[in-house]
Every structure is written in C-alpha cells, then in structure tokens.
Amino acid sequence: MSVRLFGAAVFAIAALYTLHSQTYQITFGDVLGPSVFPLIVGIPMMILSASLVIFPTGQVEWPGRDRLWRQAVALAAFVGYTLVMEELGFPIATAALIAIVGIVMGGAPWRAIALGAVFGPGLWALFDKVLGLPLDFLGTLFG
C-alpha cells in the first residue's frame, strides 16, 4: 500500500507541476527553450508514478526517525531556497542551500560552508557568463 500511496502523491505533484508550467512565459531564447523543460520532466513523471499506482512492486522499509528528520530539513531547505532566491540573489541563496544540505547529510560544517562559498558564485558564473542564462547576482534585498 505504501508504494501506491507514494505513486499517487508523486502523480499529484507532477500533475500540479505540469499544470502550473503552462503559465510560465519565457521572453528570451528559442521555442524549445526553458519553457518546455517542465513538460519534459512532468509528463514522464506522471506516467512513471501512475505505473507505481497500477503495478506496485516490492516491500517498503520506512527509514528511522533520524533519517526522516534529515529528509524533512533538506526538503525545508529546498523550499526556503526557492522562497529567498529572488531577495538574496542566486550566489548567496545557492551557497546557503549547499551548506545546509551538506551539514544535514552529515558533512563537517566548515567543509559544507566552504563548498557553498565556492559553488554558489561558481554556479552563477557558469550559468550567467558561460551559458548566457541571466541570473541576479544581488537580489532585491541588496540591489
């Protein structure tokens, strides 16, 4: 029954994701640019999750409380990331996300913070300067 419940939950999320992606308007790039990506992800996700509902297989062993807690904190970090990225800017928000997830996954705090400090601005430079996908360096809070 757990597999079917999981499949139904993922299907609902994928359906909402795909439905919401129809409102996404892109003003730059080609026709098959970033606006098509949510459809490429959402439709197969709905098909595969429906297969879990119709054809459940295997037994599910639920993780212990410690692992569930870590997963909840990581999920909260990703949700918080989407909420604060516009205000803080891509590099700061991404650096904080990488540091939080690194600590939650059991890494040394100083290493997680150092990794975030390197990869936050590094990913911004890759996307903005190399790939030409414009991202705010400083968010609305700082600029």
Which word captures the global form? flat
Radius of gyration in whole Å, from Cα?
18 Å
Mean pLDDT: 87
- Could you tell me the strand content as a percent range? under 5%
The secondary-structure element order is HHHHH
The parts where pLDDT drops under 50 for at least 5 residues are: none
Q: Major β-sheet, in short?
A: none
Task: Kindly state the percentage of residues in helix.
Answer: 55-70%
Instruction: Name the structural class.
Output: mainly alpha
**Number of E strands:** 0
Give the CA-CA distance, first to last residue: 50 Å
The total of helices stands at 5
Features:
mainly alpha; 143 residues; 69% helix; flat; single chain; 5 helices
Topology overview:
Layout: H1 2-21, H2 37-54, H3 65-88, H4 90-104, H5 109-130
Textual characterization of the structure:
Pfam families: TctB. This is DUF1468 domain-containing protein. It comes from Roseicyclus marinus. This protein is mainly alpha-helical. Helix content is 69%, strand content 0%. It has five helices and no strands. The protein has helices spanning 2-21, 37-54, 65-88, 90-104, 109-130. α1 packs antiparallel against α2 (37-54) and α3 (65-88) runs antiparallel to α4. The protein is flat, with a radius of gyration of 18 Å. The model has no long low-confidence stretch (mean pLDDT 87).
